Amino acid sequence: MFEIRIHSRGGQGGVTAARLLALAAFRDGKFATACPFYGAERRGAPVVSFVRIDDKPIKVYSQIRTPDLVVVLDTSVMDVVDVLQGLKDGGKVLLNATHGGDLKGHKTYVVDLTGIALKQNLVVAGSPILNTPVLGALAKIGIISPESAKISISEMFSDERNVRAAEAAYEELVE
Amino acid sequence: MLTIATGNKAVAAAVRQANPAVIAAYPITPQTEIVEQMAEYVTAGELKSRYIPVESEHSAMAACIGASITGVRTFTATSSHGLLYMHEMINWAAGARLPIVMANVNRALGPGWNVWAEHTDAFQERDTGWLQVFVSTVQEAYDATLMAFRIAEHNDVLLPVMVNLDGFTLSHIMQSLETVNPGDFIPPLHLPHAIDPAHPAGYGTLTGPDDYFKFRWDIERSMRDSVKVIRETEQDFADRFGRSYGMTEEYRCEDADVVVIAMGTLGKEAEVAIDLLRKEGIRAGSMRIRWLRPFPTLDLAGRDVVVIDRDYSFGFGGILAQSLKAKHRCEPYSVIAGLGGQEVTYDDIAGFIRDRKPGEEYWFGVKA
Amino acid sequence: MTEIPKEEYVLKCTSACAGCSSSLILRYVLKAAGPDTVLVIPACCTSVIQGIYPNTAMNVPIYNVAFAAAAACASGMSEAFQSAGKKTNVIVYAGDGGTVDIGIQALSGAFERKTDFLYICYDNEAYGNTGMQRSGSTPIGARTTTTPGGKTHSKKDLDGIVAAHDPPYMATACSAYPQDLFKKVQKALSIRGPKFLHILAPCPPGWRYSSEKTIEMGKLAVKSGMWILYEREYGKVTINGPSKAAMIKPVPVEDYISVQGRFKGISKEALESLKSQAERNAKRLSLEEKGIC
User: Fold this and answer.
1) CB-based contacts of A160: which residues, under 8 Å, 6+ apart?
2) Per CATH, which fold does A2-172 belong to?
3) The whole model's pTM is what?
4) β strands within C25-78, DSSP E
5) Which subunits count as partners of chain A given 3+ CB pairs below 8 Å?
6) Which residue spans of chain B are classified as CATH 3.40.50.920?
7) CA-CA distance, B35 to A170, in Å (whole number)?
C-alpha cells in the first residue's frame, strides 16, 4: 500500500487534490481511498488530506501516520506544521516551490504549481488552482499514469486549462 | 457503472434509483451532502420526487410519516442531534408501520460540539421498532440503501429502516463504487393500510391496553420475520449483482479462538488487525455486526470475545458488549473506543485482542 | 342563506363533552369539505372526541399524529397526494396548545413553504384535553389549573404570526356562527396554498359555564368585540357582518366575562387589559380594512 499525505491551507484545494489522485489511481485499475481530515476547518488554516493506493481493497480508515510521500501545496505551512512527521525512510517529498530546501535527506521534488496556474490563468476567487496541476507532477513521479491523470481531471473539470496545467507540471518537475 | 464516490454520494445514488415520491430534507453535518445531492437531482429533473425543505428534523420525520401513510415511497437523512430531535416521530413511524427509509450519518452528541463518528446517536434509537443496518464501505452504503427500501416495504415487515454510516470516516471518504441497474429489484410499494378517503378509517386513534398490547406484539413479530426478509433480499441482491454481506460479516472466524466484534468502519479496519495477529500465530477472527435491529445471533461458544463499543450507556456499559453478554451469556472484554471520532487504528485493535481481559471494561486512551 | 349539505361526517357517537363547540365546528368543517378529505389531528380534544379504537366517529380518514407535528405531517401528506395526482383536501384540525405553543414551528415552516393545505386552530383558550392548563392562547385574567390566580400574560397574537407568512387566505370564525364558518371553509378550500382558520371554541367545563350556553357564549364573544370575525384574502381585510355590528354598538366586555367562572375574581388591571386589547384589535382591523395600514 502506498500512502500519501497532502498538506495545504483551507481553500487551496488539498481535499480535491486527494480526490483527483484517488480517482486517477482508480482509473489505473488500482484500489484507492481519499479522505480529508476534518477539523474545525477554516479558510487559510493548515489542513491535511490522505490518499491510499493499493492493488487490493483497502480496509484502513485511520489516518496515515507513516506516509510514503508527502505533498506540500503551500510551503508556508512548514513554518507551523512538521510536514515530515512519520515520513518513511526513503519516503519522498513534493513541494510546490521554485527551489528545494533541507528536508533531512528525503528525496525531494520541486515544481512551481502556483506559477503554472498563474501562467494558465487558472485562478478562482483570486487564488491560483493547485489541485489539477499537482496531478501532472504526481504522474511524473510515477504515482499514477499520465493518461489517468488527464482522465481524472477531465472527469471532474471541463475547463481544458486544467489538463494543460497538469501537462506543464509534468514537464517542469525537477528532483 | 464503476466510479468513485463518497459514502454520502453513494447513499444519494441509491435513493435516486429507488425513486421516492417524497423526500424531506434538513441539513446537518456530516449528512448534509446527501440532502444537497437529492436537491441537485430534483432540480436537474433527474428525479421526480417532491422535495420538502422542512424547518427541523422533527418535521422531517413528520412529513415522511404524512407522505408514507398515503402509500408512497419516502426518504430522509439525518445525523446525531437531528436524529435525537426526531426521536418522538421515529417512534411514531414504526408504530404507524410505515416503511420509511432514512440514512443516519453517525456522529457524536454534544456538549461539546463534536461532528465526528460515534454510534451513540443510533443506539439511542434502538428500542423504537426501526430496523438498523450499519455499513462499512462506500459500496456497502449504496447496496444497503437499495436493499433497505425493499426490506422496509416487504409486507411481512412494514417497518422503517435506518442505514447507518460513520460520520466523515465513511460519509466523506472516497472509495470505488459500482452502481447497478436495479431493474425490478425493489418492487412497487403496496401499503395495505394506506389512507383512502373512499374507505374512511381512524389512524392512531385512542387505543385501550388490550389492543395497544396486540399492536406492540405485532411490531415484534414483524421484527422477527424481518430476519427472513433480510436474508432473502440479500440472496436476491447477490444473485443479481454479485455482492453479499449477511446479518453479520465474519472474517477468518472458522477456527478462531478469539473474535473481535465491532460495527461500521471500525469493524472493517478490524480485519486488518486480524491479518496482523494471524501472522503472529494468534487465531483471531472478526465479526462485524451489520444489523443492530433485528439483533443477530452469533456463534461465540468456546471463544474469547472482544467487543469494541463506539457508544456508551452511562451507568451500564458499552451497549453492544452488554447486549452480547445478555444474549449470549459470554464474558466479553469490553473496549470503549472511537467516541467523538477518536482515532483507532488496526494496530490499536490488534492490541485490544492481544491484551484482552475477559469480563473487564477498558476505556481506550483514558488514563485511570 | 347558504345551503348546508345534509351529509354528516361527524357521526352521532363522539366522546365530546356536553355542549362541546369543537365537535360542532368540525361538523360544519367536514360538511363544507366533503368526503375527499383527510383530517390530521395532533394531540387535542379531538383525539378523544373521535372515539376509541376500533371505532371512529368520523366518516373521513383521520390521521392522528404527535403534538408538535400536525403541520409537518400535513406537508408530507399534501405533497404525496399531489405526486399521485390526487386532489384530496388535507386539513389540520388542531387545538390552541398544538398551534400557538408546541406546534408553532411546524405551522410556520409549512406556511413558509406554501404547502397546499388548510390549517384550522380551534381555540378554547387552554389545554382542554388535559383538564384546562394555561396555553399561550389563554386570555389574561383567566383562571386555569396552572394559573389558579388568573393568567398574568396576554393571549398570543396567533393571527398576527400567521399573517406575517402572507397566506392567500386566512379568517377567524366562531362556533356560534355556523353559516359564516361553513362559507369560510368552502372559500379556503377553493384556494391553492396554505390557508388558515382560527375558530373560537367556547368550552363549558373549561370556561365554567353551563353546557346549554355554548352558542350564547360564542355570540357574546363576538358582540363584545372580544372575538372579531374577519377574513384576510390575499392581504385584504374584510370584517364580517356580526363584528361590524358589534363595532358600532358593542355589548360590554363585562357581559361576556361575568358569565364565565374562569374570570371569577379577575383583577381590575386584567379586565382593563382585556378591554383595551379588544379595542386595539378592532381599531387595527378597521384601519386595515380601509387600507390605511
Assistant:
1) none
2) Pyruvate-ferredoxin Oxidoreductase; domain 3 (3.40.920)
3) 0.96
4) 37-41, 62-64
5) B
6) 248-363
7) 38
Structural domain includes residue C9: no
Q: Which residue of B has its CA nearest to C34?
A: B197
Buried b (16+ CB within 10 A) or exposed e, B17-40: bbebbbbbbbbbbbbbbbbebbbe
In B, residues 261-300, which contact C (CB 8 Å cutoff)? none
φ/ψ region of C291 (left if φ > 0, alpha if ψ in -120 to 50, else beta) reads left
CATH number of the domain that C220 lies in? 3.40.50.970
* Distance, CA of C108 to CA of C115 (rounded, Å): 10
Q: Do residue B345 and residue A65 have CB atoms under 8 angstroms apart?
A: yes
Q: Which CATH architecture has domain B248-363?
A: 3-Layer(aba) Sandwich (3.40)
> Hey, of B203, B212, B214, which one would you mutate to test binding to chain C, going by the most C CBs within 10 A of its CB?
B203
**Within chain B, where are the H helices?**
7-18, 32-43, 57-68, 80-85, 87-95, 120-123, 138-153, 209-241, 264-279, 319-328, 346-354
For chain A, report the end-to-end CA distance as a whole number of angstroms: 23
Q: Taking every pair of C-alpha atoms in chain C, what is the biggest distance, in angstroms?
A: 57
Residue spans per domain, chain A: 2-172
Asked if B4 and A63 come within 8 Å (Cβ–Cβ), the reply is no
DSSP A94-112: EEESSS----TT-EEEEE-
User: Does residue C8 belong to any structural domain of this protein?
Assistant: no
The whole domain housing C192 covers 21-289
How many separate domains does chain C show?
Answer: 1
- Distances in Å between the Cα of C243 and the Cα atoms of B10, C196, C253, C258 are 60, 19, 14, 20
Which has the closest alpha carbon to C228: C191, C253, C259? Answer: C253
Query: Looking at the complex, does the CB of residue B76 fall below 8 Å from at least one CB of chain C?
Result: no
Task: For chain B, 368 residues long, give each residue's pLDDT as a single digit of tens.
Answer: 889 999 999 999 999 999 999 999 999 999 999 999 999 999 999 999 999 999 999 999 999 999 999 999 999 999 999 999 999 999 999 999 999 999 999 999 999 999 999 999 999 999 999 999 999 999 999 999 999 999 999 999 999 999 999 999 999 999 999 999 999 999 999 999 999 999 999 999 999 999 999 999 999 999 999 999 999 999 999 999 999 999 999 999 999 999 999 999 999 999 999 999 999 999 999 999 999 999 999 999 999 999 999 999 999 999 999 999 999 999 999 999 999 999 999 999 999 999 999 999 999 999 76
Q: Is A84 on the interface with B (CB under 8 A)?
A: no
Chain B residues close to A22, C-beta within 8 Å: 4, 174
Q: Encode burial over B346-359: b for 16+ CB neighbours within 10 A, e otherwise.
A: bebbbebbeebeee
Q: How far is A64 from chain B (nearest CA, A)?
A: 10
**Which DSSP letter does residue A115 get?**
H
Q: What is the CATH T-level fold of the domain B2-179+207-241, as seen in this structure?
A: Rossmann fold (3.40.50)
Position of cell 490522505? A50
In three-state secondary structure terms, B126 is coil
SS3 B1: coil
Kindly list the residues from chain A whose CB atom is less than 8 angstroms away from the CB atom of residue B344.
62
Look at residues C175, C182, C171 and name the one whose alpha carbon lies nearest to residue C24.
C175
**Cell of residue C105, nine digits:** 414551528
Q: What order of strands is seen across the sheet that includes strand C230-233? A: B202-203, C62-64, C37-41, C89-95, C117-123, C194-200, C169-174, C230-233, C236-239
SS3 category, B261? strand
Q: B192 — phi, psi (to 5°)?
A: -65, -25
**Grid cell at residue C257:** 366575562
Q: What is the ipTM of this complex?
A: 0.96
Nearest one of C190, C232, C180 to C87, comparing CA atoms? C190
Are B176 and A31 within 8 A, CB to CB? yes
